[in-house]
Amino acid sequence: MLSKKLEDALNAQINAELWSAYLYLSMSAHFAAEGKPGFANWFEIQFKEEQDHAMKFFKYIIERGGKVELKPVAEVPLSWKSPLDAFEDTLKHEKVVTGLINDLVSLAKEEKDYATESLLKWFIDEQVEEEATATSFIDALKLIKDNGFGIYTLDKELQGRAYSPIAE
Ligand code: FEO
């Protein structure tokens, strides 16, 4: 059985993951409206992955005999100055999420809840990947600067990204 403290913290993390999903869906909408379907596709897949993260916590709370309590999802920004701006925001946000996951690990350790610690290991690894991916896009977009052909080429490349659900 989860402690009440950990149950509350995991419920708060569901909200944070859903906020992330909403943020990336907003980025997808922004780029779709700007005529950049590749960036829109890439962020739509991010949105789906964040929903998967939320569901991983959702299912885990239930598996451990806890109760999921969904809270309102806060407003997200609606536009970005450029793809670089969006990826810089992405990295900033993923760093915040990494901090939240680290705090959850500290709490699980305090509560001697080894099962939760084991679940969180997956998220620790995922955050390393999330931050590295955002950083690589920032590096590429800094090289591209305002070069229209560079943005067009990257947009084409991002149209090829396909979604695959995370392993349970
Ligand atoms: Fe759910 Fe992007 O971390």
Structure characterization notes:
The protein is mostly helical and 168 residues long. The chain has a single domain, classed as Ferritin (Up-down Bundle), CATH 1.20.1260. 76% of the residues lie in helices and 0% in strands. The protein is built from five helices and no strands. It has helices spanning 4-33, 37-63, 83-110, 114-144, 148-158. It is elongated and about 55 Å long. It starts with a helix and ends in a 10-residue tail after the last helix. Bound molecules: MU-OXO-diiron (FEO). MU-OXO-diiron binds next to helix 1, helix 2 and helix 3.
What would you say about this model in short?
With 168 residues, the chain is mainly alpha-helical. The protein has five helices and no strands.
Helix % is: over 70%
> What proportion of the residues form beta strands (DSSP E)?
under 5%
- Taking all Cα atoms into account, the compactness measure Rg is 17 Å
Number of DSSP-assigned strands = 0
Name of the CATH first level: Mainly Alpha
CATH topology: Ferritin
Task: State the secondary-structure class.
Answer: mainly alpha
Number of domains: 1
